[in-house]
Amino acid sequence: MRDLFDGEAEPPVVTMAAGAVLLRGFARPYEAELLAALRDVLAISPFRHMTTPGGHVMSVAMTNCGAAGWLTDRSGYRYDGIDPKTASPWPAMPDCFAALARAAAEAAGHGGFQPDACLINRYIPGARLSLHQDRNERDVAHPIISVSLGLPATFLFGGARRYDRPRRFALEHCDIAAWGGPSRLHFHGVAELKDGEHDMLGRQRINLTFRKAL
Ligand code: MD3
Ligand code: FE
């Protein structure tokens, strides 16, 4: 009997490193619901280009939903319950967002994940995210779950030290990645987005990252 994932096709579950798992196409069944909920979130707290503490305007545009949102400005990186652009709380995390994050975490071996923050990143062609660690969360024992939508990107996955040479993974529409255990504090980034056109999202990539920040 022919295996569904033999030949040219890639396997649906890829281990990138200890604690880091890529679930190819995992968000497919949620696609329509996710995009509708995303539109509602963006109507309340739209994308904006934040400034780093060093004074650089990020090429990636960001917003958040959930009880806490990740921010950067001249005074530093942090989580805050209030969107500085609207001076109101961030929009609530849609139920389908939380359900997908929980299901993906479970599939990656992180049962009981309860995200309170979802950082939403938008890349247009040319945008990139330089190598960094995610360490503004109170307890880094919790995993981070990321959902890729739209144009494909090259994810750069480094090691525990900034100078560890990153490996490259393609992240495509509806792929989900889970980061926990030893990989949770690894350096990572996204290479400059190549131009293209996605049937549902057009000339952009949107990434949702679910965190337990508080
Ligand atoms: C590995 N976002 O928002 S998602 C970020 O595609 C971020 O927008 C990228 O890095 C993006 O902080 C990458 C994958 C990801 C997210 C968090 C991680 C990988 C991670 C935390 C630890 C290790
Ligand atoms: Fe990150």
UniProtKB/TrEMBL annotation:
State the UniProt keywords alphabetically.
Answer: Dioxygenase, Iron, Metal-binding, Oxidoreductase
Cofactor binding annotation: Binds 1 Fe(2+) ion per subunit.
Gene3D superfamilies hit by this protein: Alpha-ketoglutarate-dependent dioxygenase AlkB-like
Matching entries from InterPro entries are given as: Alkb (IPR004574), AlkB-like (IPR027450), AlkB-like_sf (IPR037151), Oxoglu/Fe-dep_dioxygenase_dom (IPR005123)
Q: What is its EC number?
A: 1.14.11.-
Residues that bind Fe cation, according to the entry?
Answer: H132, D134, H188
Location of the Fe2OG dioxygenase domain: 114-214
List the residue ranges forming a coiled coil, or say none.
none
UniProt keyword Metal-binding, yes or no: yes
GO MF terms, alphabetically ordered: broad specificity oxidative DNA demethylase activity; ferrous iron binding; oxidative RNA demethylase activity
GO BP annotations of the record are:
oxidative RNA demethylation
Per the UniProt record, one Pfam family is: 2OG-FeII_Oxy_2
Question: So which domain of life are we looking at?
Answer: Bacteria
Q: Which cofactor does it need?
A: Fe(2+)
GO CC annotations, alphabetized: cytoplasm
PANTHER family named in the record: ALKYLATED DNA REPAIR PROTEIN ALKB-RELATED (PTHR16557), NUCLEIC ACID DIOXYGENASE ALKBH1 (PTHR16557:SF2)
In its UniProt entry, what is this protein called? DNA-N1-methyladenine dioxygenase
